Structures are given as C-alpha cells and as structure tokens.
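Objective 1b: paired records.
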Amino acid sequence: MHMTRYHIKISGKNKDAMADLVRKYKINIFNHGISYNKEVGYLVDAMADSEEIQLLEKNSYAVEILENLDEVGKIRQKEVGIGNRYVRQSQPQPQERLSSSENLATTLDNTLSYLNVDEVETALSVAASAPHTTITQLIPLPESTWDGHRCSAIKIANGSNSNRLGVYFIGGVHAREWGSSDILIYFIEQIEKAYHANTGVTLGSKNFSPSDIQTIVNTLDIFVFPQVNPDGRNYSMTSADAMWRKNRRTVSPNSHSGDCVGVDINRNYDFLWDFPNCFNQSAPVHTSNDPCDHDVYHGASAFSEPETRNVQWIFDNFKNIRFFIDIHSFGKDILYSWGDDDDQSTDPNMNFQNPIYNNLRGIIDSSGLPDGPVYKEYMPESDLSLAIDLGNIMKSAIQAVRGTIYTVKSSDNLYPTSGASDDYAYSRHFKDTTDRKIISYTIEWGTKFQPPYAEMRKIIQEITSALISFCLWICNNPGRISFIGENSPLVQDEIEIP
C-alpha cells in the first residue's frame, strides 16, 4: 500500500549520523548538498513517509516537514500539456506537424505548461525540419525503451570540419525532474531561431549578441538528447506517483515476483558500478543493489538499460565530444567530477581502476580505515582548474538572468555515488586511450523537482543562459582547451598501502 510521502529537512549533530540516513535507514536524500547550521547541526533535504519520519525522530533526528509531495504532484500534473502543441488539427485530416517557422514563435516562448513526452519527441522532429536542415540533423537512437518509446537526439552545427569540438547535453534522466527536457528543447529553439534570423538571444537581464550565436553554431558540434527516460517521465506525469525517479523496467532479473519495477538510469553507467566491491563497506553510497529499492536500484549490470545504452551510443559514435552536461534537479548546483570521493591531483596511482583501494573509497572528509590513508580520486590539475573555471562561467551566466546564485563544486558529498553519467563520461579516456578526454558536469537546477511552471519558465531561461555561455566560452578559449585531445593513462600498480 502506498504511503503518503513528504519533502522533509533532516538535521543531525554530526556527519556520521547523517551518513546513517543512507547507510542505515535507507532514506532518499534529494540533492548533492549537505549544509551546516551551528544551532541545529547538519541539514539535508529528503523524501520520507510517516513511518520513516517517526523512526528518524525516535533516533534523535530533527525532522521538518516541508510539503506533501503526493498532493503537490497531483497539482503539478495539471500543468502538463495535453495533446501535442507541435502538431495542428486539420479536419477531417489527421494531425500534421507545424513547420519549424510556425512553431518556434508559439511553443516554449509562450507556453504555460510542461511539455509532455510526445511533445518533446515531436519538437525534435520539428527542429530538424525546414528551414533548419542546413544546421540541424535528427539522430534516431538505436534502443527502444521498455515501454516501446523510440528516442532521438539532435545535432546542431554549421560545417563539418573534423577538428570541431563536440558538446553533449542530456536531460530527462530522472522521471520526476520534468523541466530538464523543457530546458533543452528551449535551448535548441533559441539557438536555431537566433541563428537563422541573425539576431541575439535575451534571457532576463542576460544578452547574447547575434555574433555570439553565429560563433557557437559555426564552431561547435552540439549534440542534445533531451529525453533519456520517456517511460519514467510519462509515468511520473500521468500516474499517482509523480515522484517516480527510475525507468520502467517491469521484469527484474533479481526478483521472482516481478513486482519490483525500474532502474535508476543515473546509477547504471560503467563507473564503479559494482559499488559493494569498489567502496569501503561503511561508505554511505547513495546507490542500491536491491531491485525493490524505490529510487536508486543500479540494475543487474552496468549498461543493462536501453536508456543508458542510448547515451553511450552517442559518445561512441561521435568521438569529437569533449564536453558533457547532464541536467537534473534540484539543488542550485553546478557539479564537476568526481562523485565517488574528493578530488586530488598529486597521486595518479590512487584512482578508480586500482583495486588496491577498493576498501577505502567513499569515506568523504575522513581518514578511511584506521590504519590507511585518505582516499581521493585522481584528477590532473589542468582538468580540475578548467572544470572549476568553466563551472564559474555557467554560474555567472545564471546569476545574470535574475540574480539566482548557484554553487560550483565537485559531485561528491557526504553521500558518494557510483554509476553516474558525469563520472562515466570523464572516466572514458582513462579506461580506453583511444577515447578523448571529456570534461563533464551535472547541473542541479532549482529547489523543487516540479516547480510551478511560471517559476520553471524562469529556470529554463537561467539554465539556457548557462548552456549558451558554456558553448561560447569553449569557442573563445582555444588555448585553455588545447589539452583536451590528450589522454591521461592512469597508474595501476598494486602498491602496498602503508
């Protein structure tokens, strides 16, 4: 029986107690932030039902109930588009697509509701139609989802020089984070419309000139996959469980009952996927190998899911990709690698491929085992410096729209992750020297998974500003990114830990 779930804020007196929220109580922690208040201690946002809340309070946690998520979800579902705004009804003829020129002036510029799943896919088809065929290519992806959806990505570029840098954006990974797909469709539409009209883009108080847009399209290959998880997103938008996070795999290879549904797409990539063997046993890894875990089941194997294989396919088939952003909510964070532990740039031997460290990973800001060193994940200083600087470019671009301040930080926090897209993207060139280095990010937008759409429209502008600024900086700073083509093989000697 489904129990009502609440968005709560949990406080505890020390980090070990907060680690127990995942490690012991299996609470669904929402974002990458753990804050500290000297009066109440450490604070995190989470989701819990009434029984879980009672258990936490019984064990000396302070819990503040912020909202009834099931009630809010029902309200937000009324703000999902009905029908398909990218087609028009011609009686008695069947629906036909709007032309791109008709559509771009009337859809996400003025819409008052979230795009539904069909609208996102149709929007991509429209964006790849005339008059944009000279700069836009629709990319059908090879894998059908469990519910039979076929997904597409899109490439925006004017030119085909083999030396062009590729930038790759994905969204719609977690089902309940509806606005991520809308952000990427809006980004596509704004870039296309401005490029062909030779105009700029204005987002709140942030302005991009016509030459800015021309430079981006004429310099970069931009790959956009806006709806990675259409099954889950549709389920979240239409069922009683608006807080659904995973895909909709209905047959679990680890469950005889068949009642356990779904895999967390962002725990299914091939980066330390086998977390029980790759992390310290006491590490509060925000991942699960329980097929019945409601939120973070990592699947039967890395890349077991068609959704992650579609994301991987783009990496494998467009080898010029050097930058990657996965768009999520929430937390107002711009996150760079790594997510399994803190970063370090001094010891290449201490890295995710070295099994000698399997019993140390994931103890953030601690001493690891009593007799062992602190584990930190290796990242060359030049990569780390670029990741931070480019993150700050996006932060400034977001703030310029209406003053909202985001935080730039590494993806790890008290709750390390395994199998996440950003770490997988950055790790590829370490594991295979034929792959090129990819600087990767996760953006966690906003302060709710499903804000009222009036607020979502403002967030869409903020993150679009970040993405355009991201692309423009890459175009204008070739000296800073000249090393991107270099590989950085890791040392894997199994030295004895003192």
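Objective 1b, second protein:
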Amino acid sequence: MKCSDLMHIDLQWVPGSASAREAARLMRDHSMGFLLVSGATPGQVAGVLTDRDLALRVCAEDRLPKDVKVIDVATTQVVACHQDDDLKGAEKKMKAEQKSRLVVLDDKGQAVGIISLTNILFGDSPRRAVKTARGVLAREAEGPHTPMDQIHLTPSTPEDEEAVSHDQSVMTGRTTNTSTKMFP
C-alpha cells in the first residue's frame, strides 16, 4: 500500500504572516488541530502549526495571540514522505520521529496530502497499525504520569458542592511532587 492510498487530501493552509489568533480561529471553525503554513510559492510548506504549538508557544509563554505571527510559533522542521512511498516506510518514519502526522509531497516537492496515525489505524492491517501507534505515542507513555492504580478519588465534600452551587468552580491537580494545588 502506498501513502497516496490513505492520505487525507483536504489540506488546510494558513499564511505564515497570519496571527496566532487567526490560526486558532481557523482551527476552531474547521474543528481541526493541524494546519499547513504556506511558504513563498503555492504548495510550498514553510511549516506546520498544531494546537499544541499554540498552547506551548503562545499561551504558556503568556504571549498575545493577536501579536504573534504563525511562522514564529510553527514547527518549521516538517517531517514528510512522498506520495508514492510504501506505507511501511511512512510508518517507520512516524515511529522514528514520534510524529502522528506526515506531510505527503509530490514529485515537485509540493504538499498533496497528510497521512495521520488515524489514517493508518483505520486503513492498515490492525497489527501493524498498533505497532506504529505504540512507536508514535511512546514519548507520551514515558512522561511523568501517575499510574492508574495509584490514583485515589475521593467523594466531594459539602464545601465543594457549596462552591459549585455559588457558580464558583475549583479545579485541583497534582504536581510532580504529589502535592495538591488549587487552580481558581
């Protein structure tokens, strides 16, 4: 099977000169978390922008989305494959780069599609697709997560219910040193 057999061809582009706010609104309006950033010539990919890029490079840095240019927060090291590449090669690249999406290029080096982990999970043999998914998601699996058997849920207290009834919401979360923090 070739990459062109599974790739998604409805590409969504955003100019590198657009603001992060414009890109975020485009993502919201089209219910997507991935945009191609256009280069100087049509079809040329200058980068890719994900909802994660916006969260980590705009929100987490307390930057104003209306003042940040897409090209300044986009991932410019684009991981790509060719439309005629064998799917096995694309899966190997996804695992090696730990990327859940690859830009698919034609003979002229222009973007003609996106192949995602989702495309592979639905279109490839189940056994191979799961191996690819494990390889791509390994980075997240290795992160600082509390094992499920160590998470202890407690019932809400009357104080918690009172706070909710007064339209005040309280979120609690665990930090890596296992203390509890309150987030207003």
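The chain has two domains: 3-141, 148-183. Helices lie at 3-6, 20-30, 51-59, 70-73, 87-97, 117-123, 126-141, 158-165.
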